[in-house]
What we know:
- By secondary structure, the chain is α+β, with helices and mostly antiparallel strands.
- The protein folds into 2 domains: 10-197, no CATH class; 205-359, no CATH class.
- It contains 10 helices and 16 strands.
- The chain has helices at 190-201, 205-209, 215-220, 242-251, 258-267, 274-283, 291-297, 310-317, 320-330, 334-348; strands at 10-13, 16-22, 29-34, 39-45, 51-56, 62-66, 72-76, 80-86, 92-96, 112-114, 117-120, 125-126, 155-156, 164-165, 179-182, 185-188.
- Helix 5 runs antiparallel to helix 10 and helix 9 (320-330) crosses helix 10 (334-348).
- The protein is elongated.
- The termini are far apart.
Amino acid sequence: xxxxxxSLVGRIRGTAKQTFAYSGLGNDLAAIADSGGAVQATYARxxxxxxxxxxxxxxxxxxxxxxxxxxxxxxxxTSMQTSTAYDPFGTVTxxxxxxxxxxxxxxxxxxxxxxxxxxxxxxxxxxxxxTATLDPSPSVQANRYTYANASPLTGINPTxxxxxxxxxxxxxxxGYAGCIASDGVCxxxxxxxxxxxxxxxxxxxxxxxxxxxxKEERERLGWKVMPNGRLVDQPNxxxxxxxxxxxxxxxxxxxxxxxxxxxxxxxxxGMDSMVPMVAAAEVGDDPRVPSCVxxxxxxxxxxxxxxxxxxxxxxxxxxxxxxxxxxxSNGVDKNALMAVLLYENSFxxxxxxxxxxxxxx
Length: 361
């Protein structure tokens, strides 16, 4: 139930009713109460609306730690109580401790309330079309379901309409939003347009210029994140040599299709660590083995939805010696040859059958 400013003032789930109170005139949640007026949760904020602390239910009050995007990433007293990691669009990738009612962009979790509309972190889009007409430049604003102009690392959508600098970056001024305002219209700057292009289309940009993840943080997240901050998309990534991992991240960029990433992984030598990964999965005590790969090795499931490329890798593994022999006789690199075969076979699969077709077997 929104008010005239589109702030959510209450909701009913089953027979239970909740009411919401806000800090100032913004969308910063300050308290949640039940139908009888009993306070269920309170949130302390600074003068600009940043979350400082919270108390939910019967749990003790805790201090809050938010990142530059405004996401609630941890709570603490004298020690860490909870922690949460998100992907750039708000999907939770790891969590420890009891979840808070607040999360991505510091807003109410689940579908995130952004005043004019609701946002779905799982899809990275809004649930309804934007009612505001924005400047057609940049062209991404023509998509009225897009969140933060597809730049969630630097922008947020607190009103559900135009993008503004994310979290603490708001204090740095409008330049960080990537636009200059004129007559109420946000015009994208060249620097922002170039940054977005580099981030999405430039190989290795994340790895070279992103903040990166330490070994300790990668372990804490369950080996689900690569050093460049992106989710692991190769099943044996953590079994490859460091130089293979680095070569892969230097060629990786978000706009790549999965078949391109798979070909890149094979080209830099990713197949060399497939056998050690399979062996570790059969033993069953290595945390670097993805959970669905472990389930396949234990015969608990037939395929691995997280890594649809695994089946084709295992097929190619059967012909690794044939490919190596062919590469040697023709004076080409075996990894390059295997990458080409895998890439071409990704189009042919379903019409000509297994990779064995390539070798006349």
